[in-house]
Write a structure and sequence with these properties.
This protein has 163 residues and is of the alpha/beta class. Helix content is 39%, strand content 22%. A six-stranded parallel beta sheet has the order 1-2-3-4-5-6. It binds zinc ion (2 copies).
């Protein structure tokens, strides 16, 4: 029995074979699939997909590399979507300084906002972390993380994993 905690089946790339991919996964023993959101629009499509299929769940959030296109007030859309009963986590969020160093400040602002939403709603947090080990630890120390956190893009080492 498997749970895929990180899929993007709501992406347009799956427009032609989404049902097949889903069916194939279920047939191989995957009992649940979680699609994290990466923007307001993609969080909406992730929620819509989870409403359509019983074994599909969603997370809502704005990906660190997508923050350049939005303003912090758009986070209210994420809060609204997070109240859907098929939403099981907040994310993906985090810091990506591999591709997005120039939006670092904005990424931090959004990361903190996601931490706060997860705390308020009592939902786990999905963290995307690439080339940003020290900065992510710094934020994790300064803000109260929810009880459950999943690192999915993990560019850290053993010390950070223990942490
Ligand atoms: Zn992802
Ligand atoms: Zn990611």
């Amino acid at each position: 029995m498997y749970i895929d905690t990180h899929c993007h089946l709501n992406f347009p790339d799956f427009e032609t074979d989404r049902e097949d991919v889903l069916e194939g996964a279920l047939k191989e023993g995957v009992v649940a699939i979680i699609n994290p959101g990466s923007s307001v629009e993609k969080s909406k499509s992730a929620v819509a997909l989870s409403e359509k299929y019983p074994s599909v769940y969603s997370a809502v959030g704005i990906h660190p590399l997508d923050v350049k296109d939005v303003s912090i007030s758009d986070i209210s859309e994420i809060v609204k979507l997070a109240k859907n009963k098929k939403v099981v986590a907040i994310g993906e969020t985090g810091l990506d300084f591999y591709y997005g160093k120039e939006t670092g400040e904005k990424q931090r602002e959004f990361f903190v906002a996601h931490i706060e939403i997860a705390g308020e709603l009592g939902l786990p947090l999905i963290i995307h972390q690439r080339n940003s080990r020290d900065e992510v630890i710094d934020i994790c120390e300064r803000y109260k993380l929810p009880q459950k956190v999943v690192f999915h893009c993990f560019g850290g080492d053993m010390a950070m994993a223990d942490y």
